[in-house]
Amino acid sequence: MVLCIIAFFVFAVMSIFSAKYRPLAKEGLKCVFKTITFRPCDTGLDDRIKARLVSELLKFSPGAAKVLNKHFVIFSWLFVLLTFGSLAYSIYGFYNFYVYGNCDGPDSVNGCVLNDITGDYGRFSEPKDLIVPTNYDGLTEGNPNGTLKIIEFGCFTCPYTKKAEDTVQGLLQEYDGQIYYVFKPFPLPNHNNSFEAARAVLCARDQGKMWEFRKEVFKQQDVCRTDGTLAIKELAQNAQLDMDKFNKCYDNNETDAELGKYVQQGKDAHIYATPTFFVNDKPVVGPKTLDQFRCEIEKKDSLVKEIGCLLGQWWG
């Protein structure tokens, strides 16, 4: 009776490719229907499958055949559970592919997926689909005339944007004098208090303490996501901001127009995950190591460096 459930699924799939399996699929369906309506399955399909399996196994291992014959019901239930588990996982994979463009879900790109804000193009996007921003507006650091220009779209409550922060600081130190770094806040609506955190950082920027406050927001990211404005204002106080000015800026949404501009720029660039970087116009999606960024920056200098970077990524 139990094995009929598996037989139905197996033969139903096989009948798509060969008509000879259709009678068996119908027989399996009939048995399943009788089972779920609490009637005895009298087709004999279970017994025929059992006899076939035991006889085939007997050719290779009489001991294993004996165990299978004795505990056939237990093995049948295990196969049923595996079948339904596989079916559920397959459905989950199809859902992820439809929603995120991959079978692994939102974390497959090692970034916070933005399909809910960017629209249909976010489902199946790849780095090659990204459009380079046309300006360097944003939270900036470094030399505007530098030869290395890096734009980052990030969300202050995205754990992957936080993960990339150490690498960003490393780049600013290593390429000091050469780098011009631009951060464009791109808050995700499915992350609690993402807009509030971005608004607060812009307000801190107006007091010349963007970097100090940004560091605190990333450090206390979980608290900001759960406690929102209360935690954000406490961080502002700890960063020694002028709270009268900060509260006026934050409570009156004075930076929302600027924030909306960055969000629109992200949409125009077809950003589909944070963090997303443009390294001298070359898109890089997700947090990367400092070595990986070095490769993106320096591999064009010579063929030897490019080959070395490729080998390093392959071994790493």
Short structural summary:
By secondary structure, the chain is an alpha+beta fold. The chain has helices at 2-17, 22-36, 45-58, 62-70, 72-100, 115-118, 159-163, 165-174, 194-205, 210-219, 221-227, 229-238, 243-251, 256-268, 290-298, 303-315; strands at 112-113, 139-142, 148-154, 179-185, 273-274, 276-279, 282-285.
Please give the share of residues in helix. 55-70%
Second rung of CATH, namely the architecture of the largest domain: 3-Layer(aba) Sandwich
The tally of structural domains comes to 2
Write down the Rg: 29 Å
Unreliable segments of 5+ consecutive residues: 116-123
What is the overall pLDDT average? Answer: 79
Biggest sheet features:
5 strands, mixed
CATH class of the largest domain: Alpha Beta
What's the tally of helices?
16
The CATH homologous superfamily of the largest domain is called Glutaredoxin
The CA-CA distance between the termini, in Å, is 51 Å
Number of extended strands: 7
Q: Strand fraction band?
A: 5-15%
